[in-house]
Amino acid sequence: MTLSPQPTTTSAPQTAPAPQPARLGWPRGTADLRYGGDYNPEQWTRETWLEDIELMKQARVNLVSVGIFNWGLIEPRQGEYDFAQLDEIMDLLAGAGIDVDLGTPTASPPAWFWKAYPDSRPVTRDGVPLGFGSRGMASPSSPHYRRAAAAVTEQLARRYADHPALAMWHVHNEYGAPVGESYDEHSVSAFRGWLAARYGTVDALNSAWGTAFWGQRYQDWSEIDAPRLAATVTNPAQRLDFARFTSDALLECFVAERDIIRAHTPQLAVTTNFMASSCPSMDYWKWAREVDVVSNDHYLTAEREDNHILLALDADLTRSLAGGRPWMLMEHSTSAVNWQPRNLAKRPGELALNSLSHFARGADAIMFFQFRASRSGAEKFHSAMLPHAGTDSRVWREVTALGSDLAALASMRGSTVDARVAILWDWESFWAQDLEWRPSVDLRHRERIEAYYTALWQLGVTVDFVHPEGDLSGYDALIAPSLYAVTSRGGRALTDYVRGGGRLLVSFGSGLVDEFDAVHPGGFPGPLSEPLGLTIEELLPFRSGETAALDTGGTATVWADDIRLDGAEVVTRFADGRAAGEPAVTRNAFGAGVGWYVSTRPDAETLRGLVARVLGEAGVEIPGPPEGLEVVERSAGSARYRVYLNHTDADLTVAASGRELLSGAAVTGSLTVPARSPRIIAL
Ligand code: GAL
User: Fold this and answer.
1) How big is the CA angle at 298 (ends 296 and 303), to the nearest 5 degrees?
2) Which residues on neighbouring strands pair with residue 485, listed in sequence order?
3) Ligand 1 mean position to 54 CA, how many Å?
4) Do the Cβ atoms of 17 and 289 come closer than 8 Å?
């Protein structure tokens, strides 16, 4: 969950994402899929714990995340530890055969910490120090916080290293939310150190940041501040670097805890829960290299009708962060959350459809926030596996049914998902694009990613996400939906990709700047000019609500470019409007591949047709499932499984043969997937 809007900023990659290291991989123990959720026994009596554990067994829960918010309980005064309650919980869970994903509680320091170290309070961009009485970490650069976090982590790791319940470690909770950037004095001085390490000299920084503009030149590191709220727009390169610094500072906190834990339990996996597509302030490509297993939290935006598609996007991004390996859905909700404007309950069956969509896309652990709904505090209206209404409830029945379904799917554990198409995703480009004073507020990376992803979802094509400087070699086609910042290195990688036979589809507003938010020499679209065979003379954003007709049919909104063709052929032109006669879609045969450019925001049907054409030319199979049917394949060696999820109110029938795993029934030739239900076939 993103509890509050995060500050945004930009940057382009400092270093290309390295190949994923060999991972320790997975919670120790059972060969089953993992099922469970956050468990916060400190909110309940011992009697309730006993009941909870019985109910967990009923629901086939085999993993719970414990201790995420219990710092004040286990260290009531600085340096004084009391593990009596946690010991008992761990023992009870071990006795019931339920494994523990043990949390370090460092996302929420206790009252004594804030009293002793008020200078560790995070400070907002407009200078407000944040108070206690909520949750959220201290300034990641506070030496007091880092010392206190290390001390409590050391105690936990030492105490529970050999505990039979301990299956893995859950460091902190959702780094970056609710506190991302902090403008406190510890952060400012750490930022200066980070800049000195990055640039070496103040002159190099001046040049990278373009400080000749508006007379911002620095003579000494000590003159440099965090990009606080200022009279008007702050230097964008400074904001980008502060965003990079923030992600790095939080990552240092994770690595410090992880390494303490590893010293005690080198055999156990350590993770921290990401918020793949919903945390704007972490560069998860970097983070993914540091965890032993990728885990993710995902919550629906309840009011969006297409939220099953957005869920799939998030799951595909998580699998991509995991380098294709199985990952853990660490949190999602059984029904409503409590922090959106209107917290809609899930419809009957949606709990399973959501869970199995994550599973179809590579999650081998399905976990919820949280096991038992809290009676007090800010989250009492949040759903849970065990709702306030108890076991005689729809949610509990669906929770226990899902537990059985996952048990029936154990044979699929470890199988993987293959994608021939990838969408480019770069947090630094998001940071850059979301700053002020862009050509149009309608130029939105996320909106374009969702539009292209939706087209692919509807065509039934499974996609990965990849960093422009990541490994592009396995893909028949790549899509760059308004990738605002592209480094020279990224540009070279994409050019080589096309030259070598790849198909690259680029949408407007891409390659406008480099990693310092500076325009590439020669203008737009920077290093993408060559593979696309064109140069943009002028950007022609539309008025709000303005539309234009396309000469091959369909309408365009938001954007056009004044294009000079340098080899590309025109596929579609604007038929009217401010860009009448200008190319709207171009195609450039380049080397052994093709670079496509879309200079506008076509309507959804036109976009889907275009995507199908590009993929068709690239030789990608387009299954084209019935509308509303999600179909994803997982495989392991010669074993192939197909997951069908019907998101509509009508039964849908498709051709299929094999064994249906949830029922054990044989399927011969045709499969009916009932409305709002899943079917999973071993082919
Ligand atoms: C998550 C968080 C949980 C809980 C949940 C509610 O972001 O990690 O602790 O607050 O949101 O949706």
Assistant:
1) 170
2) 513
3) 24
4) yes
Which atom of ligand 1 is closest in space to residue 3's alpha carbon? 7
Atom of ligand 1 nearest to the CA of 339: 12
- Asked if residue 97 lies in contact with residue 162, where contact means CB atoms within 8 angstroms, the answer is no
Question: Considering only 129-133, 379-383, 538-542, 678-682, which range has the smallest mean pLDDT?
Answer: 129-133
Q: How far is the CA of 297 from the centre of ligand 1 (A)?
A: 8
Are the C-beta atoms of residues 323 and 285 closer than 8 Å to each other? no
The pLDDT confidence band at residue 30, using thresholds 50, 70 and 90, is confident
3 state DSSP class of 104 = coil
Q: How far is CA 356 from the centre of its chain?
A: 18
Q: What's the distance, Cα to Cα, between the start and end of the chain in Å?
A: 37
How far apart are the CA of 473 and the centre of ligand 1, in A?
37
Report d(CA 335, CA 357) in Å as an integer: 16
**Whose C-alpha lies nearest to ligand 1, atom 4?**
369
Report the nearest atom of ligand 1 relative to the CA of 2. Answer: 7
Residue 174 C-alpha to ligand 1 middle, in angstroms? Answer: 8
Class of the domain covering 421-617? alpha beta
504: left (phi over 0), alpha (psi -120 to 50) or beta: beta
Instruction: Report the residue among 106, 314, 331 best suited for mutation to probe ligand 1: largest number of ligand atoms under 8 A from its CB.
Output: 331
Q: Provide the 8-state DSSP code for 572.
A: E
CATH superfamily of 629-682: Golgi alpha-mannosidase II (2.60.40.1180)
**Do residues 156 and 234 touch, judged by C-beta distance below 8 A?**
no
Is 250 strand, coil or helix? helix
Q: Do domains 421-617 and 629-682 have the same CATH topology?
A: no
Pocket of ligand 1 (CB under 6 A): 1, 173-174, 297, 299, 331, 337, 369, 379, 382
Calculate mean pLDDT across residues 546-573. Answer: 98
Catalytic residue numbers read 174, 331
List all residues 6 or more positions away from 465 whose beta carbon is below 8 Å from its beta carbon.
Answer: 316, 317, 320, 321, 422, 423, 424, 425
**Residue 4 predicted with pLDDT over 50:** no
Which long-range contacts (C-beta less than 8 Å, at least 24 apart) are formed by 218-222? 221/192, 221/195, 221/196, 222/192
219-232: pLDDT as tens digits: 999 999 999 999 99
Q: Which residue of 297, 346, 372 sits with most ligand 1 atoms within 8 Å of its CB, as the best mutation to test the pocket?
A: 297
Residue 563 Cα to ligand 1 middle (Å): 47
pLDDT tens figures, 564-585: 999 999 999 999 999 999 999 9
Of 15, 23, 17, nearest to 294 by C-alpha is 23
What are residue 421's DSSP bridge partners? 463, 477
CA 350-356-361 angle, to 5 degrees, is: 130
Ranges of each domain in the chain? 1-31+62-253, 421-617, 629-682
Q: Which atom of ligand 1 is nearest to the CA of 299?
A: 12
- Residue nearest (by alpha carbon) to ligand 1 atom 11: 1
pTM over 0.90: yes
Measured CA to CA, the distance from residue 254 to residue 631 in angstroms comes to 36
Q: How far apart are CA 201 and CA 220, in angstroms?
A: 9
Cα–ligand 1 centroid distance for 613 (angstroms): 41
Task: Say how many Å lie between the CA of residue 1 and the centre of ligand 1.
Answer: 6
Radius of gyration in angstroms for the set of CA atoms belonging to the chain, rounded to a whole number: 26
Residue nearest atom 1 in ligand 1 by C-alpha distance: 1
Q: What is the mean pLDDT of residues 287-296?
A: 97
Test site for ligand 1: of 71, 175, 370, 379, most ligand atoms within 8 A of the Cβ: 379
Pocket test for ligand 1, best of 104, 175, 296, 369 (most atoms within 8 A of CB): 369
Fold observed for domain 1-31+62-253: TIM Barrel (3.20.20)
